[in-house]
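Researcher: Structure prediction, please.
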Amino acid sequence: MKDEIQNLSKKHSWSGTHEGIFFEIVNWGFDNPKFHGETGKWNYYVYLDERRVENLNEFFLPSEVKQFSPGGTKYISYDYYKSPLSNVDWHVA
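Model: Predicted structure follows.
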């Protein structure tokens, strides 16, 4: 596990703004295809300026405590599909 975490610390990152909204696209784990496939894992991050969001409270998702298995590790989860961002078309034409 320790070796895997060290590999995850390496990443490529691209960032910019679109219509005044800052975003970042990250590719990580690319150097360890055994665990992450040939292309690694991809994530995107959208940074919202709360002063510019009229319905800000809709972005705060309720937390839910879950468990991997009975008696296993508990963790907090968020249903991201209930976020206002879940229906955004991220593919700009």
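Model: The longest helix spans residues 2-8.
Researcher: Thanks, that helps.
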